[in-house]
Amino acid sequence: MWTLPMYDLTGFQRDLLYVIAGRDEPHGLAIKEELEEYYEKEIHHGRLYPNLDTLVDKGLVEKGQRDRRTNYYSLTRRGRREIDARREWEEQYVDL
């Protein structure tokens, strides 16, 4: 398992993390649909699933299995901490 912080993620991987954080154990297709709506273009499986696996490998996301064909994703405690740390960092620069 890698132990690099969130700044090591691509923007797409951060977006995946945020979508997973905002949903209750979403499956891959639900994540894909959410990002397609945001990006206003198709997200290919060949981009989606390897990036989800990277988040799992980094210890930010857990992957579970609903049935033989459907996996779901949820944040780990570390994933939640990384999102919180990112928000704190962003708040230094973005005055809302």
UniProtKB/TrEMBL annotation:
Coiled-coil boundaries: none
Matches recorded under InterPro entries: Tscrpt_reg_PadR_N, WH-like_DNA-bd_sf, WH_DNA-bd_sf
Domain Transcription regulator PadR N-terminal residue range list: 16-84
Top-level lineage group: Archaea
Record protein name field: Transcriptional regulator PadR-like family protein
Organism the protein comes from: Halorientalis regularis
